[in-house]
Specification:
With about 325 residues, the protein is α+β, with helices and mostly antiparallel strands. It has six helices and 13 strands.
Length: about 325
């Protein structure tokens, strides 16, 4: 069961903790499985076998395990062109009657900028990241709680989705969550840069290739890129594999457990916490990331979170085992 904000501070403190509060992690989420019935093959970009690089030799947040770079051999696989949208997730729920973990808990974390100002200081907040406010009744269909709805956000990514929720959707859609190596390979495309479009970093005034924060986090968001919160899943230019929003917009769950490959004392402590909370890996950063703070919208950036975590900036996309001809995009 996930830790309520008022219970205790998280033990997973890191330098510049990112926007994801711990869900608790005292138990492993047990994903439900459904008969595959609705694979949307039009969504899939097929990627051929390759020798790929995971991580970087120039880590910005070494404590997150961004480095060192390592070579991996990947089999052919497919990956969704877009993050899973509210429209797709709604179809899954309508077909299966699935109830998300946020619905079962009865609450989820909402960024303070989407909470009525008069309530921000009266409601429980996440100890490690006080810009996250616990809102009763917040879940994928009502992202900011009572009074909010996805009616005008059908093409936005589904959020407030736990790792188990994502895996349940994957079983229904005939896919799975990607590995970190698959995710990074897909995000880099053919450019091999620090970002899906190359090596030029986004800024607050002239270059907006993805949906991240502009201004002073966490208090002032200029939304110069056009979005204060999530953007439609087909916003911004795709990378050269044709994949949209591989960084920014929403964090994306991966299949892997979160581990830091290092023998330092800090890494050992981080891994002890990750194991105790059964943390799973997330990639890509979100609309709340900014260069002055976490800068986790780089391809090599990574973060771990308990599998029952759910927030307003956490979503997913699917990967798939290779089709017979294993075509390269």
């Amino acid at each position: 069961m996930r830790t309520r904000p008022e219970d205790a501070a998280s033990t997973s403190r890191v330098d510049k903790p990112c926007c994801v509060p711990a869900g608790g992690g005292s138990r492993a989420a047990q994903p439900e499985n459904f008969a595959s019935s609705c694979a949307d093959r039009s969504e899939i970009v097929w990627i051929g076998a390759s020798d790929s690089v995971v991580g970087t030799d120039d880590p910005l947040l070494a404590i997150d395990g961004e480095g060192p770079a390592r070579k991996v051999r990947l089999r052919p696989y497919g990956i969704d062109r877009h993050a899973v949208s509210n429209q797709r997730f709604a179809a899954f729920v309508a077909d299966t009657g699935y109830v998300t973990e946020a619905e079962k808990f009865g609450w989820s974390f909402v960024f303070k900028g989407f909470v009525q100002p008069a309530l921000v200081h009266t409601l429980p907040a996440a100890p490690e990241a006080p810009w996250w406010i616990r809102i009763e009744g917040a879940y994928w269909k009502h992202p900011e709680g009572e009074g909010s709805h996805i009616g005008d956000r059908e093409t936005h990514p589904a959020v407030h989705v736990s790792w188990a929720d994502a895996r349940a959707f994957a079983s229904w859609a005939g896919g799975r969550l990607p590995s970190e190596a698959e995710w990074e390979n897909a995000a880099r495309g053919r450019s091999g840069g620090a970002y899906p479009w190359g090596d030029r970093a986004p800024d607050d005034s002239a270059f907006f290739p993805c949906n991240i924060w502009q201004g002073r986090f966490p208090d002032i968001n200029d939304a110069a890129d056009g979005y204060a919160g999530t953007a439609p899943v087909d916003s911004f230019a795709p990378n050269d594999f044709g994949l949209y929003n591989m960084v920014g917009n929403t964090w994306e769950w991966c299949e892997d457990p979160f581990r830091v490959r290092s023998l330092t004392r800090a890494a050992k402590i981080r891994n002890q916490v990750a194991r105790s909370q059964q943390q799973r890996l997330m990639k890509g950063g979100s609309y709340l990331c900014h260069t002055s703070y976490c800068h986790r919208y780089r391809i090599a950036a990574r973060l771990g979170c308990p599998p029952d975590s759910a927030t307003g900036h956490l979503g997913f996309r699917l990967a798939y085992d290779a089709r017979p001809d294993s075509a390269q995009p």
